[in-house]
Amino acid sequence: MKFSVQKLKITGSEPLHFEEDVDISDVVQMNNDIRKIDPVHVKGFATMQGNEITFSFSVDGTMILPCARTLVDVTYPFHINAVEVFSVSSYYSEGDESEIHPVHGEMLDLDPYIKENVLLEVPFRVFSDDKKAQENALTEGEGWELSSEKKTENKIDPRLQKLQSLLKDDDEPENR
């Protein structure tokens, strides 16, 4: 999604509205959690005031992520509202700590900022609501076993079983 700086200057104080579907499928290689992402729908407007261009836009789409329990595909819909500010000033440098991005050349490419906002939206973990997937999920393997609170309430850790026998001996009255 590219914009001409000259076209933004011509619009002046009037906002330039835009709406487009953008293919950002290469974020799959950037983040191991995203298995697939459909083209996202970007809608917003750009305004120019002095040397600063402000883009206010929303991104809607769906991504496929792995379930944290079963690793099956989970469809995760998302909606992002974002504001990005750019500067066309030749005196502006990238070394500044501000959130203003410099514009190099006559074209402004919004795609990297769309991708950045989508990557920031990836949740820490998602869970599948599919009952069949949960039933078919692995519960044990070589050297590991899935445990739940219900299962472990009455079960005594084998490493602590000898201590249990010592506690039973102390509870009985001594016959001396």
From TrEMBL:
* Pfam families in the record: YceD
Xref: InterPro entries? YceD (IPR003772)
Q: What protein name is recorded for this chain?
A: YceD family protein
Q: Which organism is it from?
A: Aquibacillus salsiterrae
Phylogenetic placement of the source organism: Bacteria, Bacillati, Bacillota, Bacilli, Bacillales
